[in-house]
Amino acid sequence: MISRILKATLILLFLSHLVQGQETQMVYLNSELAQVDFINAKYVRHMTPKSKDTFQIKDYYLSGELYQEGFVKMIFPYLNRPGGNLNNELKANRNNTNFFDNELHEYRQPIQIGKFTTYYKNGKRKSEGHYLNGLKEGKVTQWYSNGQKEGDYLFSDSLNQVFLDNHKTGTERQIINFFDSLGNQLVKEGNGVYVKYEKGPLLDSGRLHNSIKEGVWKGSFKSGKSSYIEQYENGLLTRGTSIDSEGNSYQYTKLIVAPYYGNYGDNEFYSFVSKNMVYPIEARRRNIQGTVFVQFIVDELGNTTQVKTLKGFYPACDMEAEKAVDLANNFKPALIRGQPVSVLLVIPIELRLRDVPNTIMRKRIN
To answer: pLDDT tens digits for 32-43?
Structure first.
């Protein structure tokens, strides 16, 4: 560990020397690109301001090689409805990718904009494409680590919205061309057999017709610990079965299911929060009102964990909101291919004084 720290420190000193004289910030990132301390870092990010909220970024492996480069815009973190459709892909054990802004004293979320390029440690390109408001847009090209082209993929807002609306299309992208690592073309202009491996295990395989999934598709989760088999008709999932690392089987007809609170979703969640909050006496006396944005994780059992305030307005009120959310352990967990997963949510809780003391006005997210 000590030798790793010494080596990384020398590299960081070298990288810092490259950007001296510029208003460049340096932060440490883990494998999920979440901001962490140095000990848990996998990458080092250099952020050079180009405007008030826009930064040019260059992320480096700890060994000094460039990992990715492009531009990000810092925004307030996305909002998720506890019982509705999530506006981003659910990820198991999702980490906090928000950055703390010392000047604003609140968290901001970097979203990718414009051209982005990622690289392997050997310096060869891994992927290249464009982003629009944090989502891939247009053609994205990917390569294998040996320099062979992997494929061309098409992303669009309409494709992403269809995927989010029904979670049955199996993908938010179209596969246009695909090659194996030896350069053999398996999919041409959206037609052929797609076979993707990831560090050994089969990740995804099946037949494409005009870039639409057809028939039986098989694969495994990226962790390699779970497998699945699915049936598609006209690009839509009709049924699927996944098996976890312990041999448990899960049936599903949607690839992704958002967490849902109790039996009535949003209304029940905010009703619970309202009933379990007490307006702080000092805040009531001083007529302090506002909205606190709370981040938390709904785990595989439907419990809330790692509750914290992303943006508050009065410490005592923020703490009351956190306490109430921490007690809200009646979620049906999020599901990916039928299997329960953890997911991160950010929600606003509005505190408003009424004529009746100690009551709190609830705000529903539309």
So the answer is: 787 788 898 999
Sorted by where each starts, the structural domains of the chain and their CATH numbers stand as 260-351 (3.30.1150.10)
**Residue 127 to residues 16, 132, 242, Cα–Cα distance (Å):** 26, 16, 29
Coarse DSSP helix, strand, coil percentages of the chain, rounded to the nearest 5 percent:
15, 45, 40
Interior/surface letters 157-175, b for 16+ CB within 10 angstroms, e for the rest: eebbebbbeebbbbbbbbb
Question: Tokens 């448990």 label which residue?
Answer: 248
- Over residues 298-316, the pLDDT tens digits come to 999 999 999 998 888 999 9
290, 284 contact by CB (below 8 A): no
Task: Output the average pLDDT for the chain.
Answer: 81
Are the CB atoms for 320 and 328 separated by under 8 Å? no
Q: 330-346, pLDDT tens digit by residue?
A: 999 999 999 999 988 88
Give the Cβ contact number of residue 12 at 10 Å.
18
Q: How far apart are CA 186 and CA 79, in angstroms?
A: 40
CB atoms within 10 A of CB 223: 10
Rounded distance between C-alpha atoms, residue 86 and residue 80, angstroms: 6
Q: Tokens standing for 167?
A: 């979670």
Is the pLDDT reported for residue 2 higher than 80? no
Whole-number Å distance between alpha carbons of 351 and 323: 14
> 275: Cβ–Cβ under 8 A, 6 or more apart, which residues?
none
Please give the helix or strand (H or E) that residue 249 lies within, else none. strand 249-252
d(CA 203, CA 219): 5
- Nearest alpha carbon to residue 73 among 99, 55, 92: 55
Task: Identify the residue whose tokens are 């057809």.
Answer: 214
Cα separation, 85 vs 80, in Å, equals 8
Res 318 pLDDT > 70: yes
User: How far, in Å, are 30, 36, 52, 169, 296 from residue 40 at the CA level?
Assistant: 6, 6, 29, 36, 21
